[in-house]
Amino acid sequence: MKIPALLTALILSPFACAVTPEPGDTGELSRIEAQRASLAKATENAGFGPQSPRHIGDARGENPIQFATAPPFTEMNLCNIHFHKNAEHAGGEFTQYAGDGDGQGFESGYVYSGMLTADENEPLQTPACPGTHDALQSGDTIEVHYVFSTAPVTPGPTLGACLSEVNINPQLRVEAQVFVLVNDDQALDFSNLAEIDTRSGYQQAPNIPANTGKPIEYAGSTTGPGYNEAGSPLQVSWSVRPEVAKLDIGSAAQWCKGNVFNEDHAHGVRNLVVNTKLLSPIAH
User: Fold this and answer.
1) Which of 28, 40, 136, 253 has the fewest CB atoms in 10 Å of its CB?
2) pLDDT per residue as tens digits for the range 242-278
3) Residue partners of 271: CB distance under 8 A and separation at least 6
4) Other beta carbons less than 10 A from residue 31's beta carbon
5) Confidence band of 103 (pLDDT split at 50, 70, 90)
């Protein structure tokens, strides 16, 4: 796929790691507070549109930039599926803060605030989906992003799959679902959730959960720790489901061993955006 290098860099940068501030540079600020201060400075009067992720229970937003809401995902093409360890968004059933983490998006974010049984929490002998920074274990929370594009594309690796030679500026939509991983082969199967089919001429993920509450819809951006200190220039229509579903960790481990998206590990999270100048208002 021939895509201008600059736009490709912008698309792929959500998967990059943020730069950790040097010791002593932040004064009394925590690492997260320092990164938020850097984000505010980098975006002030720079023309950036509303950002993601956010607390889906807080409707406040002062960002003046508006863009057309993307069509329903059933009228767009699925282009990518990936997931983050811990929820990037907060609210609903994922309100427990995981901590500041390493400043690069790992061991931060939000986790399932409910309870699991001892059997559901039984750890795997071998953790699932190991990456450079971490792996997944029973009891962990993940946020899955089903990414859709108005471009004539087919599902593939990275968000670059959402662009085409004939449409490098498509409308984008993310259907987000938070899962808690359980050691239970009767729980939801990730391969089923990530199944791809053609419906009415569109590439679809027909098994996105439809019973986890009315999605909170808002205008935002791409996410990922690469944007902890920089604004994302991309415009995304979001639908975030407020309830958490239980997912069989064994099925996630199997999916990570081979899929059309080349996803084999969990990505880090972007800091929750709390600056109302960088948030769109959520309509009631």
Assistant:
1) 28
2) 999 999 999 999 999 999 999 999 999 999 999 999 9
3) 32, 35, 36, 39, 108, 225, 228
4) 19
5) confident
**Domain boundary assignment for the chain:** 5-277
Q: How far is CA 38 from CA 21, 48, 278, in A?
A: 10, 14, 13
Residue-wise pLDDT for 173-219, tens only, equals 999 999 999 999 999 999 999 999 999 999 999 999 999 999 999 99
Q: In whole angstroms, give the CA distance from residue 88 to residue 85.
A: 8
Q: Give tens-digit pLDDT for 113-143.
A: 999 999 999 999 999 999 999 899 999 999 9
Locus of tokens 């057309």 = 68
Residue linked to tokens 């850097």: 38
- Both tokens of residue 124? 């795997």
Cross-strand partners of 90: 55
C-beta of residue 33 within 8 angstroms of C-beta of residue 66? no
Question: Under DSSP, is residue 178 helix (H, G, I), strand (E, B) or coil?
Answer: strand
pTM of this structure: 0.91
Structure tokens of 160?
């670059």
List the alpha helices (DSSP H) in 91-143. none
For residue 260, give the 3-state DSSP assignment.
coil
At 255 the three-state DSSP class reads helix
267 vs 42, 115, 167, 263, 277, CA distance in Å?
24, 24, 27, 9, 26
Instruction: Report how far apart, in Å, the C-alpha atoms of 283 and of each of 56, 167, 271, 276 are.
Output: 11, 30, 23, 15
